[in-house]
Specification:
With 240 residues, this protein is α+β, with helices and mostly antiparallel strands. 29% of the residues lie in helices and 30% in strands. It contains five helices and eleven strands, in the order H-E-E-E-H-E-E-E-H-E-E-E-H-E-H-E. It is globular. The termini are far apart.
């Protein structure tokens, strides 16, 4: 089951990244082994996401070598199975992490009664949410998340409020038979409390579905403490 959930988590993430780009009018491309974007993605989003593991690593590395010759500038690659060696092409590892997942039946995250969760539904709310997620600073370029995403019933931007003030949030996306959770942020609250609330909301909005995602460092530790299982390693490579 873990391998099936891992494959679903990888596919879900690629579909989500493609959806973010498509909402800006510039979708990426899927092949049997990877997702790629030739024009350049929004900030923090990779240009390539591998969809298969070590058995296709050489094919993926060759495709990436061709791609980086076709466009100048920085590149990011999400090495979904930690199977690539991109150092010969001028890449460095930005970070390593773990895919995580939890079955609906195993979700027992504690409920913080002081938090009021709200689904973001308007352009004004989304702008406010994005600024909070970004640490309070206005975006230096165009917003990462286009308003078009709010019209998709399979995507939920969520904010957690305490005494009327936004204190955290995250994004849920239902694709590939699972619910991906991402962009978890907390303001003057613990990340674990926000993630726990987000997991609960996922169970309410998309009942009965597994929740997946990826994390590293302290965020990974917190997710595992909430009951998530590590599904497998990933790496993110960058090239200037």
């Amino acid at each position: 089951m873990t391998s099936e959930m891992l494959r679903a988590a990888v596919r879900n993430n690629a579909l989500w990244c493609n959806g973010v780009c498509e909402a800006h009018g510039v979708p990426g491309e899927f092949s049997a082994t990877l997702w790629l974007h030739r024009q350049g993605t929004p900030a923090f989003y990779p240009d390539v996401i591998t969809l298969t593991g070590a058995d296709t690593a050489r094919e993926q590395e060759e495709a990436i070598a061709v791609l980086i010759r076709s466009r100048k500038g920085g590149w990011g690659v999400k090495d979904s199975y930690a199977a690539l060696d991109l150092a010969p092409f001028g890449f460095q590892i930005l970070f390593g992490g773990e895919w995580i997942g939890i079955e609906a039946a195993d979700m027992h995250a504690p409920n913080d009664q002081s938090l009021i969760w709200k689904r973001i539904t308007t352009a004004v709310e989304l702008e406010f949410w994005q600024r909070a997620w970004g640490g309070g600073d206005p975006p230096r370029t165009m917003p990462i998340f286009a308003n078009l995403l709010l019209r998709n019933e399979d995507i939920a931007f969520l904010g957690a409020f305490e005494n009327g003030a936004l204190c955290g949030g995250g994004i849920l996306n239902r694709q590939s038979g699972v619910v991906g959770h991402s962009n978890v942020f907390a303001i003057k609250r613990s990340d674990c409390a926000i993630r726990a609330g987000l997991v609960q909301k996922a169970g309410e909005i998309f009942p009965g579905m597994p929740i997946v995602g990826y994390e590293h460092g302290e965020d990974l530790t917190g997710a595992l403490e909430l009951g998530f299982t590590s599904l497998g390693p990933l790496r993110v490579w960058v090239r200037s």
